[in-house]
Amino acid sequence: MKYQVVIGLEVHTQLTTNTKIFCGCSTRFGAQPNSQTCPVCLGFPGALPVLNQKVVEYAIRAGLATNCSITRRSVFARKNYFYPDLPKGYQISQFDLPICLNGHLDIDIEGERKRIGITRIHMEEDAGKLVHADLPGIGDDSCVDLNRACTPLLEVVSEPDMRSPDEAIAYLKKLHQIVVYLGICDGNLEEGSFRCDANVSLMPVGSTVFGTRAELKNINSFKFIKQAIEYEMERQAEILDEGGRIIQETRLFDPSTGTTRSMRGKEEAHDYRYFPDPDLVPVIVSDEWIEQVRATLPELPEAKRSRFTTGLGLPEYDAEVLAASRELAHYFEETVALFAQPKTVSNWVMGEVTRALNEDGRNIAECPVTPALLAELLKLIEKGTISGKIAKTVFDEMYKSGKEPAAIVQEKGLVQVSDSGAIEAMIDEVLQKNPGQVSEYRSGKETLFGFFVGQVMRASKGKANPALVNELLLKKLNG
Prior knowledge:
479 residues, alpha+beta, nine-stranded mixed β-sheet, 15 helices, 16 strands, elongated
């Protein structure tokens, strides 16, 4: 490799407030175009913005969770640029006095930990959306939907600390997980709730002087972000190899071709003519408010994973899977509180529960088998009432009907057979039907033991106590 890539990311996180940042319009996604607008978000002359306090609270939460300093006095500014989806002709954002500064996230890459700096987190309003479509009676045209205008955003700006696409994706996934855990963003990439601009440049290996960067704009998929960075690395390397010069510009990524194309020359801060917004007073954050917000922070994924491994004795893989989702972790912990065998619960949550939800297209919050019902099922296995195999049948019925496991076991006659006399009779019948295999086993082919166990379990329709079957069968065969 002749070149070292340098990557910095700007992540736009759409907040889950019910109303917009400077007006009372709904932020609900998917409504009829331009149905969630008012004079403020439409930029009518004389309409005055009023700051949504919840947005400030969410910004403080994000800052605390990403190790930032919370600015006690921050200021909104006007960022001037002219596009059809920005009706005022400027975006209300923050510039030289943002609400959060100098944070970091630690990522794990190939077994090593690396710290990625966060320059700033600032509050701003989103722009509207251009819809390109073949419209009835109009034809192929572009229309403006301003429902999204004035929706609250946090922009998280990293330092240019990432040196590979994998590092960029690790950072993005960790940030995504944190904002979803905090409850400030739904994390829906397809709807644009979490999207990213990537600044990519190359410098010769061993150099400390960064090259000219290209900005890859508004990518809302981890897969596409990685592809866009990789393509941009190749594109810039070819230009440099040919003696060319990289132009500082904004580029768009085309997922259908896996390539980037020029959108416009990259603006600098002076191009936007920032100045303090005269309609909004400075945001003053007290120490008391910061501590109140800190007290409401949930346990974050990294701390939860650590507790699952050290406190509950789970393998690292299990802890990683269960802590990936706040809702899944909560489901697991509620079940463990009722059935105190963490590894057994983990196996079932990662196995049967996740399988059923995936097949059904549901999330864990919609699971018909509650933690209480799953705990009851596991207690039936522990007591020997049913076998692990039968328990999977019972679980499927619980998932479909929502009934209690004990009722299903009773209705379907699934109680485990633990009568040694009944099991011995089944074993005798299986051995009589398979004299050849008995002879082979007694001649040293002990791998046939599993065959006999399977035949007995089949004869019992899966209801025989497996431990008792193994014990009695071994005695019979060796006898």
